[in-house]
């Protein structure tokens, strides 16, 4: 134990509990621990208005959780963190381990500039990306095999609570405060912070977990956990969730753990293939022909494609900063298979507007739909927006909630206004394309690319 202060540099871990880096920091010094958050302009500017607002709200919640002793600075972490540590005479800087391409490069630059050790403890995931390998020491390329090995590998329990911690004085930064104050979105955000995340989790366990296996696919029902925005900023850790579910039987619990495994799988894929953040993971479709949809892409972004379930999802995104996962797949399939756009266009739009926008999950989820990612045989999978809508929103309630032009149509007829005598009476747009024709075109392009 050192008598020099310690720095706790927070990133994707905006919480007080189940926090290995905080625990190690508290045990490393007999002096003060100085929590720090650095607003990195590279990430801040590229995040999009809604994601900046959500991050700012959670930074404020973390500041309160750290007894208003969280220093918030603005600037390049490779300069700001070493300067802060030198100013304090810190003996160590503590972080949660990072595995994203940018995060890893950033941490290397910071560590090289420090005059004291930078100690990484824990990970944003239950299992650190890169740890789950097959018998040949290679990463898994298919989710099912990864999920089985991930469960067999196991994960540590929640980190113990530190003893009493004396937090150090706060260093003021008017530029950082202005950035936080200016991060105001036009949508109503969920309540931010760890306490809100834990309340949401306990409510879901009590009321939604048992039926999760079936309800999670129903956008017309409140059947999801709502935890993805909190997991994104680390207001709650997946290890906490898994510990609470240990020994819980039933399809709902198993299905929820599978969804956590998908998050871990995509982080693992990005760790092993960092270039896949914005490039096709599978090279065999590199020759696939794409269109520049132009006005069609604008219509997709606005929720004006003429396909009700697609438009409902895109409007939910614009209004709330979130979209139901089943609908994310439907709208992604429509952009890539019906409008023949390359998936990064949609992935960037999502990251601009999603409060839970996570590079690994978002971009590899898009590739899964587009057929260029981890799935073994994706080329024939084209989501029919009408069939999907009628199956998962059978009474049309989700569509009517987000597409007011169709609220006059009863039941499932809201999914096919072109079949209703008064379907277009209130100004709903006609279909941009014919799905059957575009499906045939998509499959022809995939076969053409595979034959090269």
List the helices and strands and how they pair.
Layout (H helix, E strand, L loop, with lengths): L5 E5 L9 H9 L4 E7 L1 H6 L2 H17 L5 E4 L2 H12 L3 E4 L5 H13 L4 E3 L22 H11 L20 H9 L11 H14 L4 H4 L12 H6 L4 H8 L5 H22 L22 H8 L5 H13 L4 H14 L4 H11 L5 H12 L14 H8 L4 H6 L32 H17 L1
Parallel strand pairs: 1-2, 1-4, 2-3, 4-5
Helix pairs in contact: 4-5, 6-12, 12-17, 14-15, 15-17, 16-17
3D structure, described in words:
The chain is 49% helix and 5% strand. By secondary structure, it is mainly alpha-helical. Helix 4 packs parallel to helix 5 and helix 6 crosses helix 12. The model has no long low-confidence stretch (mean pLDDT 95).
SSE string = EHEHHEHEHEHHHHHHHHHHHHHHH
Instruction: Report the mean per-residue pLDDT as an integer.
Output: 95
Radius of gyration: 23 Å
Secondary-structure-derived class: mainly alpha
Morphology:
globular
**Strand count, sense and closure of the main sheet?**
5 strands, parallel
CATH superfamily of the largest domain: DNA Cyclobutane Dipyrimidine Photolyase, subunit A, domain 3
Q: What is CATH's topology name of the largest domain?
A: DNA Cyclobutane Dipyrimidine Photolyase, subunit A, domain 3
Poorly predicted ranges:
none
As a percent range, the share of helical residues equals 40-55%
User: What CATH architecture of the largest domain would you give?
Assistant: Orthogonal Bundle
The first-to-last residue Cα distance is 62 Å
The largest beta-sheet arranges its strands as 3-2-1-4-5
